[in-house]
Amino acid sequence: MTAGAEQATLHDPDAAPLARLDRAAIEAIVAGGRRLLVQGGMGIHASDGLSGKVARHRGARLVGVGTVSAVVKSAEHFRAEIRRARAEAPGGFVGVNLMAAINKAEFETCTRIAIEEKVSFIVQGAGISREIIKWCRAGGVPFAGIVSSGRLAAMYEKWGADFVVAEGAEAGGHIGDIGHPLPTLVDEVLAATRLPVVAAGGVDAADVARYLAAGAAGVQMASRFLACSDGDAHPAFKEMHLGKTADDITLITSCVKGMKARAVRNDFTEALARGEAFPPRSKAWFYGKEGYHGRKKACVECLGEDLCLCRASNFKESFCITDALLAAAVKGDVKNGLFYTGQSITRIPETDVTALPTAQQILDDLEARLAADAAPARAVAG
Ligand SMILES: Cc1cc2nc3c(=O)[nH]c(=O)nc-3n(C[C@H](O)[C@H](O)[C@H](O)COP(=O)(O)O)c2cc1C
């Protein structure tokens, strides 16, 4: 896919603009009896291709929201992925996930592009940059923060965020607070802020009604969408999500600030557990001899200075996250790749990678379950 992704077509820039997902828009959706179903952004190409397919969903009970990940994308590829989603979901809600932990230059470039493309919102995870809130305000783009505590949610409200994503310890990838499971986190965040709250982390079809009934304006799901037929992730990545039990999942110590992260257990995670280090390889293995967008050093400095344990140890400890995640989502290398996943992976019912549902079928199933359940939801305070 790399080559395909790198050469992604720039869709018509004049396609119908995306809709703003600001606080008022969310409150209007909730007041109208519907909730948000957000596809969580997944870095290094794992969620590519999904955002428009989720964002075009307008059901009786759920409004689909897509999130394009900005992590390790060239400016052209990032812009193309936003436009692709916009072409698939004209007038829909497509936001961008930006991690404050990525290197400053890329963080600024991606923010500028997201604002130029008038995305529906920018959501910030893995670190906090207050600058981005100012840029969003100046650029007229709604802003959201990912939070792992009520305290942080209250801070985001004070800073002018439009909504927060409460991400519990059950989530895939990097985990903000490993001691904070979603059911208690949602209650804590709802009590701490009047902003709309989206519940994320380990959410499965069977859980959606309960979080909406608790007062969430929506839920976010990521891992579930990895195992669908029409996302771009490598088929081996999708297959890694099938037929798994709790023993197949593990927590690793990531090179990103030493954060805990959840992944599918494989040779790579076992080697990390033994303390093996994986310094960056020349990116020629992936990007060809021109290297990573013209940068030829093995370390492409994807993370901010001092945030990468691998770089900080002069590559003697930890691992190169760009190599490990590219190997998983794009190359489908089941031995050497790092396959981030959420705890809900154990509840993915499908077992055959050739018969996975489409993103739309996953959404239709969620709608059907909510209809069957028809749990009343408390409106989000305005
Ligand atoms: C493969 C993978 C990559 C992820 N990458 C990011 C990321 O780049 N930025 C981010 O804020 N969250 C990231 N997440 C977290 C998801 O966006 C989401 O909030 C979380 O996984 C929700 O839990 P679920 O996967 O159990 O549904 C990632 C998750 C996975 C599984």
Please characterize this protein's 3D structure.
- The protein is 34% helix and 14% strand.
- The protein has 382 residues and is of the alpha/beta class.
- The chain has 2 domains: 2-232 and 355-373, TIM Barrel; 235-346, no CATH class.
- The strands form 2 sheets. The chain has an 8-stranded parallel β-barrel, surrounded by 8 helices. It has a 3-stranded antiparallel sheet with strand order 7-11-10, covered by helices on one side.
- Helix 4 runs parallel beside helix 5 (104-116) and helix 5 (104-116) runs parallel beside helix 6.
- The longest helix is centred in the last third of the chain and has 15 residues, at 359-373.
- It is globular and about 55 Å long.
- Mean pLDDT is 91; it is low at 1-8.
Tags for this model:
alpha/beta; 11 strands; three-stranded antiparallel β-sheet; eight-stranded parallel barrel; disordered N terminus; binds flavin mononucleotide; 2 domains; 382 residues; TIM Barrel; 16 helices
> What is the architecture of the largest domain at the second tier of CATH?
Alpha-Beta Barrel
Strand order of the largest sheet: 1-2-3-4-5-6-8-9
Total count of strands? 11
Mean pLDDT: 91
Measure the end-to-end span.
Answer: 44 Å
Q: Which small-molecule species are bound to the chains here?
A: flavin mononucleotide
Strand content: 5-15%
